[in-house]
Amino acid sequence: MKVILASDHLGVEFVGRLRDTFPDTEFALALSEEEMIREVADAEVFLGWPSKKVFSAGAGLKWVHCIGTGIDNVEALGDIEASGIPITNARGPHTEPMADHTMLFLLSLAHNAKKMLDDQAKGEWDTNGYDHVEVSGSVMGIYGFGMIARAIARRALGFGMKVIAVDPGPDDDVPGVNIWGLDRLDDLFRASDWLVVACPLLPETHMTVDARRIALLKSTSSLIVISRGGIVDEGDLSDALIAGNLAGVALDATDPEPPAADSPFWSHPNALISSHSSALTPEMYEGRRQIVVDNLRHYLNGEELIHQADAGKGY
Q1: Alpha carbon 111 to its chain's center
Q2: How far apart are the C-alpha atoms of 174 and 147, rounded to whole Å?
Q3: Which residues pair with 315 in a beta bridge?
Q4: Are 307 and 69 a contacting pair, CB within 8 Å?
Q5: What domains lie within the chain, and their CATH numbers?
Q6: Among 28, 52, 169, 228, which one has the highest count of C-beta atoms within 10 angstroms of its own C-beta?
Q7: How far apart are CA 44 and CA 63, in angstroms?
């Protein structure tokens, strides 16, 4: 059996670990599309994000494993669904660092961290130039209540915050969190001091945070995007921020990535940006490697694959 490792996301040396762990299995490292097309012709398993061209060249493929979390950016997703072969992902290891990063954003906005760092760089001691916000007792609203959102909620509760979430069908809950249906999404915006976008990017979530919904937020509220770009209309968001209709914005994911050079999010004093990097810890990478190893063992033993995703739903 042949397995293609088609990304250096987990380190090119990972292919050596796979060969040592599964000595009776052939592994090929293919990083360019040309290499992938050549190697996938006689492969059974593809580890990575196949393009349509690569997937069509793999007539013998029986399983695709996305070595990240979101499968929405797999170009061949529709073809994978049509083929009926399983697609799995590496959900789980990203959860804790992304929740940490969300709280970093929140506390940085609440305590003027951007000004603090600027003052430090300039050697300024401006005690009276700060107007912090207490987060205890404030309301966090979370759009989507999957694994990341639940980890965020647990942290927010620890800070004494009230937490509300909207999700069409949460698969778990967190004690102390009120979970509403999608019909109350507008109410979530009205109630939130901190609105966190943690839902997947799907046709039904695309651009759902538009000017009308942003206007439902209080002028003292802040909006944080931790999941995917394309859910929030960033033009409408920047307009609201510049007009003073929002207290702050923090984005780990944008559309496009990176934002345009003239985007106000780069320079606005109440905006924070990170480069879609919130999950990137050594523990996350190792967790994703271990999922590959565990799932390959399941596959070779004829057992049910873990972390199966739904290509039709996009997650």
Answers
A1: 25
A2: 11
A3: none
A4: no
A5: 2-91+282-300 (3.40.50.720), 95-273 (3.40.50.720)
A6: 228
A7: 7
Q: Find, among 122, 136, 135, 184, the residue nearest to 165 by Cα.
A: 184
State the sign of the Cα–Cα–Cα–Cα dihedral 147, 151, 157, 161: negative
Per-residue confidence in pLDDT tens, the chain, 315 aa: 999 999 999 999 999 999 999 999 999 999 999 999 999 999 999 999 999 999 999 999 999 999 999 898 899 999 999 999 999 999 999 999 999 999 999 999 999 999 999 999 999 999 999 999 999 999 999 999 999 999 999 999 999 999 999 999 888 899 999 999 999 999 999 999 999 999 999 999 999 999 999 999 999 999 999 999 999 999 999 999 999 999 999 999 999 999 999 999 999 999 999 999 999 999 999 999 999 999 999 999 999 999 999 998 888
Q: Report residue 154: phi and psi, to 5°.
A: -60, -40
Residue 109's φ and ψ, nearest 5 degrees, are -70, -40
**What would the two tokens of residue 145 be?**
């209540």
Buried-state track 12-38, b at ≥16 Cβ within 10 A, e below 16: eebbeebeeebeebebbbbeeeeebbe
Structure pTM?
0.94
Token couple for 140? 């966090």
Q: What is the DSSP string of 22-82?
A: -TTSEEEE--SHHHHHHHHTT-SEEES---HHHHHH-TT--EEE-SSS--TT-TTHHHHHH
Instruction: Give the Cα separation of 144 and 133 in Å (integer).
Output: 25
Residue 41: CA atoms inside 13 Å, Cβ hemisphere, count? 5
- CA-CA distances (angstroms) from residue 139 to 6, 163, 191, 209, 298? 43, 6, 7, 18, 43
